[in-house]
Amino acid sequence: MFYQSSINSSQLNLNFWVRLLSRLGGAAIFFTLFSVLSAQAMDLRVAIRKAVSSVKVGSSTPALVKDGGGKTLGSLGELVPAIAGTNGRGVSLNGWTASQIIIEPSGDGVVWIGDRWYRGRTRLLRQGSGVTAVNQVNLEQYLYSVVGSEAVPAWPLEALKSQAVAARTFAIYKSTAESNRYYDLDTTTATQVYKGMENEYVSTVEAVNATQGQVMTYNGKVILAAFHASSGGHTENVEDVWTSPLPYLRAVVDYDQSAPVFQWNKGFSVGEMSSLLGGVGTVRAMIPEQTTPLGRIVTMRVVGSRGTKNIRGTKMREVLKLKSTLFTVSESGGSFIIEGRGSGHGLGLSQWGAYGLAQQGTPYTQILAHYYQNANLTQLDR
């Protein structure tokens, strides 16, 4: 059972938003209301919409509208929708124009961006010829949704705590090492999945609060806390999958045997495979050219009627829509059968492995120590 609490419509007079959600294919707006003082003052800039022609914005409470320098331009009413766009001079909203526009809700208000609610405030800025809508949100509050989006809220609390620490560490690493002038993170698996208040649950809030300010470090620095769904029995050394070795992303036994993606298979006709891979005519054979020590495909040699080419395993995964690069290929009855294990890159924390260990009563501190070898659990300054 997933735990969630909803705001009664009489509390927020959500008629407009319910109608809007209905047009977008959903009629329920879920919230989890917790007024928790974060241990960290760090805010993240999360891109919700990137370089779009327009975006719907609003606030659950009366909100101030300011420019990038903090000058008040005006206000938005409670639950009054607005459309942000661009013009020759920058960003436009309800007749106001500035290089950046900020929407700051009053009280405990939350903001509407696109098609859902978010904590924090909204920053609108011009990117290329479009408008980018950024959610500026407190790190801990951001994690309420990330843990609910990346993990299963009904999982044991220790597994959710592991995810909370990994996600916090990953967010800080990305925002300090790889952010740009527009935003630190987005909402996809390229950084971390973030769906706003819609994916906050009692269990995920509890996991975040119970680990408030805790991160994984190595030699006093926040680590690249990679995580994935399931490794298929054993995680990888980072240098075998990506590039440079890291002392904390080492291959370890996984405990993900209960994962629904632990084993999987997918079939393709010769015609389908030839069309998808392209450039070699009719595919006749697929031979692993280079693999990791644990069997992930680094490059595959594809032999066809009109030539041969090597394809990277990551590219094959993308083109064939496979769950991982840990797979073998066989031919049977004029078809290619792919048998694989796991889901994701196989580095760092295995989410289903964390679930398996938590089911055995393993505390989150030991789960993290297992998947992030040589790293330390560190409390950031409060």
SSE blueprint:
Elements: H1 9-12, H2 15-23, E1 43-52, E2 55-59, E3 63-67, E4 72-76, E5 82-87, E6 90-93, E7 96-98, E8 100-105, E9 111-113, E10 116-118, E11 121-127, E12 130-138, H3 139-150, H4 157-177, H5 202-210, E13 214-218, E14 221-222, E15 227-228, H6 238-241, E16 263-269, H7 270-277, E17 283-291, E18 297-304, E19 307-312, H8 313-320, E20 327-332, E21 335-341, E22 349-350, H9 351-359, H10 364-371, E23 376-379
Parallel strand pairs: 15-22
Antiparallel strand pairs: 1-12, 2-5, 2-9, 3-4, 3-8, 5-6, 6-7, 8-11, 9-10, 11-12, 13-14, 13-23, 16-21, 17-18, 18-19, 20-21
Protein name: SpoIID/LytB domain-containing protein
Transmembrane segments: 20-39
Keywords: Membrane, Transmembrane, Transmembrane helix
Main traits of this protein?
382 residues; 6-stranded antiparallel β-sheet; 3 domains; 10 helices; alpha+beta; 32% strand; disordered N terminus
Description:
The chain is α+β, with helices and mostly antiparallel strands and 382 residues long. The protein has three domains: 9-198, no CATH class; 213-258 and 345-379, no CATH class; 263-341, no CATH class. Helix content is 24%, strand content 32%. The chain has helices at residues 9-12, 15-23, 139-150, 157-177, 202-210, 238-241, 270-277, 313-320, 351-359, 364-371, and strands at 43-52, 55-59, 63-67, 72-76, 82-87, 90-93, 96-98, 100-105, 111-113, 116-118, 121-127, 130-138, 214-218, 221-222, 227-228, 263-269, 283-291, 297-304, 307-312, 327-332, 335-341, 349-350, 376-379. The strands form six sheets. It has a six-stranded antiparallel sheet with strand order 1-12-11-8-3-4. It has a six-stranded antiparallel sheet with strand order 7-6-5-2-9-10, with no helix packed on it. A hairpin with a 2-residue loop joins strand 9 (111-113) and strand 10 (116-118). Helix 3 (139-150) crosses helix 4 (157-177), helix 3 (139-150) packs across helix 5 (202-210) and helix 4 (157-177) packs antiparallel against helix 9. The chain is globular.
